[in-house]
């Protein structure tokens, strides 16, 4: 059978999803042009960005299908984080209170990937497939990297709390940490691709052509960028009108909007019984935010003149450490059940309630 015959393009279900998401995006554009209430714009743009992130996820899944589970997991994480990266950079560019939103969203995304995405994946996989095994070697490396990333994010906070110098010292330390993070992430990728592929996920069954997948990626990325601009512009008025704190918006709302692609991809793959691939998406996404997106955010602060110091609150760091430690215990076991997934989700729910009252 020829390649053209094998690739059927966008199916009916995906077509309906694309039409619905496109309608929401058009509605968001219309609301912005009509200058309606910023809270309404924030909500609709948030839904639209989440929808576009889902489209990015579908296109990424098709683009990486033939490349193997490791490359697919990396692509899912990279394009799944695209919406959040855009939002963080735009927030840093605007400065002011949005610097806090950008800073908190870094921690919130790591927590969301480790607790919410990984937890939901283990829960669904356990309910559908029972106790599942996975590569403890690969998961252990990912968990160790996550612990190291947690230390890198926590040290500037500890330094800021103990140091009697001005915040400029913390900013300078953040610059140094960002450089180390980039080097560490590059080393992590090099190590990952030097190791043998262990996942048994099927590959080479992409329904879309490469040209179609790349076209959808390009168009959806552009639309996501524009919608993210609208979303970021509406954050401060939304905070003022609703009283919701920048902490909650940064830690919970922005990561949920930006990580919807990983949610769908990781949980769907976990339901099929491939925990290696699913956990790879969750860990890759968390590490990419903790190491790469953090470095980009710090660089953006330097470029735009709105320095972003990696100084977080004690509560955020405590939840981040708890998430990394629990994930490490699960990773080294090589097996997981639905109960462990539920435990991760429970920690996330408790953290979200706590962040609401901060």
Short description:
81% of the residues lie in helices and 1% in strands.
Which characteristics define this entry?
358 residues, mainly alpha, A middle domain of Talin 1, two-stranded antiparallel sheet, 15 helices, globular
- Kindly report the average pLDDT value: 84
**Rg of Cα set:** 20 Å
How many domain modules?
1
Helical fraction equals over 70%
CATH-defined topology: A middle domain of Talin 1
Outline the low-pLDDT stretches.
1-6
Multimeric status of the protein: single chain
Class from helix and strand fractions: mainly alpha
- Main pleated sheet: 2 strands, antiparallel
Task: Using the 3D structure, state the CATH architecture.
Answer: Up-down Bundle
How would you portray this structure in words?
It is built from 15 helices and 2 strands. It has 358 residues and is mostly helical. The chain has a two-stranded antiparallel ribbon. The longest helix is centred in the first third of the chain and has 32 residues. The radius of gyration is 20 Å and the shape is globular. The relative contact order is 0.22.
Summarize the helices and strands and which ones pair or pack.
Blueprint: H1 3-6, H2 12-33, H3 38-64, H4 69-80, H5 82-94, H6 98-129, E1 132-133, H7 136-162, H8 167-194, H9 210-233, H10 235-242, H11 246-258, H12 260-271, H13 275-304, H14 314-333, E2 335-336, H15 338-356
Antiparallel strand pairs: 1-2
Helix pairs in contact: 2-3, 3-4, 3-9, 3-11, 3-12, 4-12, 4-13, 5-6, 5-9, 5-11, 5-13, 6-11, 6-12, 6-13, 6-14, 6-15, 7-8, 7-13, 7-14, 8-13, 12-13, 14-15
């Amino acid at each position: 059978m020829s390649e053209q015959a094998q690739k059927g393009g966008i199916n009916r279900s995906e077509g309906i999803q694309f039409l619905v998401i496109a309608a929401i995006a058009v509605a968001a554009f219309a609301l912005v042009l009509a200058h309606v209430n910023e809270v309404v714009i924030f909500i609709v743009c948030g839904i639209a960005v989440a929808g576009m992130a889902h489209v990015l996820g579908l296109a990424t899944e098709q683009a990486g299908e033939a490349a193997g589970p490791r490359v697919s997991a990396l692509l899912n994480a990279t394009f799944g984080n695209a919406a959040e990266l855009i939002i963080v950079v735009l927030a840093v560019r605007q400065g002011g209170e949005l610097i806090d939103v950008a800073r908190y969203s870094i921690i919130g995304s790591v927590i969301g990937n480790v607790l919410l995405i990984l937890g939901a994946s283990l829960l669904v996989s356990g309910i559908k497939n029972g106790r599942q095994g996975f590569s403890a070697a690969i998961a252990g490396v990912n968990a160790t990297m996550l612990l190291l990333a947690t230390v890198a994010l926590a040290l500037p906070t500890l330094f800021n709390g103990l140091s009697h110098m001005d915040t400029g010292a913390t900013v300078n330390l953040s610059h140094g940490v960002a450089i180390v993070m980039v080097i560490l992430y590059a080393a992590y990728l090099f190590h990952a691709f030097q190791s043998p592929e262990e996942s048994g996920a099927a590959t080479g069954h992409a329904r879309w052509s490469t040209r179609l997948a790349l076209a959808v990626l390009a168009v959806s990325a552009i639309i996501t960028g524009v919608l993210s601009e609208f979303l970021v512009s509406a954050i401060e008025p939304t905070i003022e009108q609703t009283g919701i704190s920048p902490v909650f918006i940064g830690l919970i709302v922005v990561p949920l909007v930006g990580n919807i692609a990983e949610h769908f991809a990781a949980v769907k793959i976990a339901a099929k019984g491939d925990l290696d691939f699913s956990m790879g998406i969750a860990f890759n996404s968390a590490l990419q935010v903790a190491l790469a997106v953090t470095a980009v955010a710090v660089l953006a602060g330097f470029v735009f003149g709105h320095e972003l110091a990696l100084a977080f609150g004690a509560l955020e760091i405590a939840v981040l450490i708890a998430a990394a430690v629990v994930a490490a215990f699960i990773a080294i076991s090589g097996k997981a059940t639905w109960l462990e997934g539920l435990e991760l989700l429970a920690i996330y729910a408790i953290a979200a309630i706590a962040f609401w009252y901060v």
